[in-house]
Decarboxylating 6-phosphogluconate dehydrogenase
Amino acid sequence: MELGLVGLGKMGGNMRERIRRAGHTVIGYDRNPDVADVHSLEELVGKLKGPRVVWVMVPAGAATQSTIDELAALLSPGDVVVDGGNSRWTDDEKHAVELGIKDIGFVDCGVSGGVWGLENGYALMYGGTEENVAKVQPIFDALKPEGDFGSVHAGKVGAGHFAKMVHNGIEYAMMQAYAEGWELLEKVDSVTDVREVFRSWQEGTVIRSWLLDLAVNALDDDEHLEKLRGFAADSGEGRWTVEAAIDNAVPLPAITASLFARFASRQDDSPQMKMIAALRNQFGGHAVESKTEN
């Protein structure tokens, strides 16, 4: 099938390549002309045959809103817009209504996989009507990992991004646990090779995971994380997860504490946040701060 893809950054560019490898046609637009296939959204829409599917992979908030506003003026009834960025689920409900006035469908899709998704596939959580999801299904199938898992129609509009938000909240807590354990191991005199302790956990233990593998990768690059400043940003989804928990009276002590720990990293050079920063860089290519940048 044909797909219009808006936003060809670290994830969007790799997603374009994976979809093309599956035999589909992708026409990509980005503000950077060096990576774009067309020069404008108008040209992108004009090259697609109806019913069109346009996937948006731009930063959440104003950038997503302006892109959807522009697409609403260019697309036709029966077309579908997919928001694959990290938008808040409440924005999805708003976008669905705005596009629905013009009989344009809307699907929200939480995407996980970071810089590794091109080869490994992307975990996908999407929300929308059965009819609109069906129009995008070949692209979901191309992006997902091989096998029976890694892709889910989570529910109605907003469900995809809500599920991805909870996923990221869990990710916060898991990274925090690894970081705390690493700091404690580094602190005591009796443990002389912390990196190899982490490596030993990769097989046969109940805490083995892809995040643990990435922690070992980071320690192979910088054994004591001495090159990093103990600072880790938060993308916003951790905050949204805690806010949703408050709204629904659901206790989230581990996720909430991990979010607050990131706030603490902005006050001093936290050893734990060196590991968090290293893990975020490993799985998502997120920027890190070296000590010389402070």
In short: The chain has two domains: 2-156, 165-293. Strands lie at 2-6, 25-29, 53-56, 80-83, 105-112, 123-127, 151-155. DSSP finds twelve helices and seven strands in the chain. The chain has a mean pLDDT of 94.
